[in-house]
Design goal:
The protein has 142 residues and is an alpha+beta fold. It contains 6 helices and 8 strands, in the order E-E-H-E-E-H-H-E-E-H-E-E-H-H. The longest helix has 14 residues. One of its GO terms (molecular function) is DNA-binding transcription factor activity.
Length: 142
């Protein structure tokens, strides 16, 4: 299970360093193989390859009414590997689609990660908090 946030810097070639707290687990469970794709919220999803393979099957089985979501998720999926320096390359198409600039945030979301432009995430979190959590909080106790 991946959790927590990491402030990272996207280098000039579009690479980020995978935080060491996650790198070892990703190398162990996925041999350093990851899949990146777009998320409807405007960030990127980062999956360990074995988790993605299972998720990909679910997405491929969506009904025709979900074709736009299939296109977004499957049509933009790109396989990457953690290099010897602990970095992954985020393709220009994905960087542009998610508006990633220099400062990014990697969020552990359980079995996968979200990769956000830091400023976009701050705006999103502020908007989400201003709207309240509604029903979600009614189902949860701190």
């Amino acid at each position: 299970m991946f959790q927590g946030s990491s402030a990272l810097t996207l280098d000039a070639k579009g690479r980020i360093n995978v935080p060491s707290k996650h790198r070892d687990a990703l190398i162990e469970q996925a041999q350093g193989c990851l899949t990146l794709t777009r998320h409807p919220d405007g960030c990127l999803l980062v999956y360990p390859r074995p988790v993605w393979e299972s998720k990909r099957e679910q997405i491929a089985a969506f009904p025709m009414q979900a074709r736009a979501l299939q296109r977004l998720l499957l049509g933009n999926a790109q396989d990457v590997e953690i290099d010897g320096s602990g970095r992954i390359l985020v393709a220009p198409e994905l960087r542009n689609a998610a508006g990633l600039t220099r400062d990014v945030m990697l969020l552990g979301m359980g079995a996968h990660f979200e990769l956000w432009d830091a400023a976009a995430l701050a705006r999103r979190e502020a908007d989400d908090l201003s709207q309240g959590m509604g029903e979600a909080l009614n189902q949860f106790s701190f």
